[in-house]
Design goal:
The chain has 340 residues and is of the alpha/beta class. Helices cover 40% and strands 16% of the residues. It has one domain: NAD(P)-binding Rossmann-like Domain (Rossmann fold, 3-Layer(aba) Sandwich). The structure holds nicotinamide-adenine-dinucleotide.
Length: 340
């Protein structure tokens, strides 16, 4: 089968490609990425030599380009990881989030419909459910929790989800959606909490923590997320939404302190800064549906996973430094890519 994987130069998409390109030699994977500031070609460079993989630079907001790509490539499966993904940026530039996350998704849906794609999968987020109170540990998001968004980011992701479900109902497009909690692992751009803490701590810089650091996230290792996406794409029921969660709720402050401890750095680096506007309090996921239906489960517990992740960043300091210096923007050289 031929797969289109959008956003494959980003954090989760690149981890997904490393997993599936090596696992499924009989399938062929086309990675489509616009290489925005968050797209890092270094994340997927070593896949260039694989026979069942190629990279295409392009923008999901460009409907003519998307239509042409679909007409030429004959994809069987589309998996949409591409998105503007940082809540803070969505507060500064909400329109960009609507263009990429909603209209970009609709371009992919239209092409999937026109070219009879066998499965369209939307990679979504638990943020579409809004937040939960800090003092009600009994409450978790299920697939039936109403959408109730807080930020322009989560509103754009929820809008995209609604379009995906509308195409399923109206046009009988075979779709699935996964809604996952906060990911951690290798190749995460140093704008998100965990790589920010590691890169600042490496340079003994102050580590900004929003508010009192009491917001709770349900952390999942990116590999467990991607195993879930793969199972849903191959075996999930069309028209269904599946939650994926880490069962590892931690406050932001706990996460920061754990990382500093592993790095042997002082907690004095922690600096509390003004809270993010509209900051969601707590996310927590019930993933019973995917566990029962598709036999999915986590292989990482947070304590081991975060230790492994810190070690990955420490052994790949040049990967972070390349981003901090801006050099990562030169990693993609169009003329060197051979078309397979
Ligand atoms: N990071 C998380 O914790 C998390 C949790 C749940 C769901 N998600 C979702 O998973 C997906 C991937 O998240 P991530 O953390 O890897 O994001 P990321 O920001 O690291 O990567 C996004 C990728 O999409 C590409 N992209 C952006 N706009 C594009 C466009 N117009 N056309 C083509 N490519 C474009 C970027 O270049 C980048 O490579 C997103 O849809 C996000 O909403 C993320």
């Amino acid at each position: 089968m031929k797969f289109l994987v959008t956003g494959g130069a980003g954090f989760i998409g690149s981890n997904y490609l490393h997993y599936v390109v090596n696992k499924y030699k009989e399938d062929y994977f086309v990675c489509l990425d616009a290489l925005t500031y968050a797209g890092n070609y270094n994340n997927i460079k070593e896949l260039e030599t694989k026979e069942n993989y190629k990279f295409v630079k392009g923008d999901i907001r460009d409907s003519l380009f998307i239509d042409k790509l679909f007409s030429e490539e004959n994809f069987d499966i589309v998996i949409n990881f591409a998105a503007e993904s940082h809540v803070d940026n969505s507060i500064k530039n909400p329109n960009l989030f609507a263009e990429t996350n909603i209209l970009g998704t609709m371009n992919l849906l239209n092409a999937s419909k026109k070219y009879n794609i066998k499965r369209y999968h939307q990679v979504s987020t638990d943020e579409v459910y809004g937040d939960l109170p800090l003092d009600r540990k009994d409450l978790l998001f299920t697939e039936n929790t109403p959408l109730h968004t807080s930020s322009p980011y989560s509103a754009s992701k929820a809008s995209a989800d609604l379009e995906v479900l509308a195409y399923a109902r109206t046009y009988k497009l075979p779709v699935t959606i996964s809604r996952c909690s906060n990911n951690y692992g290798p190749y995460q751009f140093p704008e998100k909490l965990i790589p920010v803490v590691i890169s600042k701590a490496l340079n003994n810089e102050n580590i900004p923590v929003y508010g009192k650091g009491e917001n709770v996230r349900d952390w999942i290792h990116v590999h467990d997320h991607n195993v879930g996406v793969d199972l849903i794409v191959r075996n999930g029921r069309p028209g269904e939404v599946y939650n994926l969660g880490g069962h590892s709720e931690r406050t932001n402050l706990e996460v920061v302190k754990t990382i500093l401890k592993h790095m042997g750095k002082s907690e004095d680096l922690i600096t509390f800064v003004e809270d993010r506007p509209g900051h969601d309090l707590r996310y927590a996921i019930n993933s019973t549906k995917v566990e029962k239906e598709l036999n999915w489960n986590r292989t990482y517990n947070f304590d081991d996973g975060i230790k492994e992740t810190v070690n990955w960043y420490l052994s790949n300091e040049s990967w972070i430094n390349n981003i901090l210096s801006g050099d990562y923007k030169n990693a993609y050289k169009e003329e060197l890519i051979t078309n397979k």
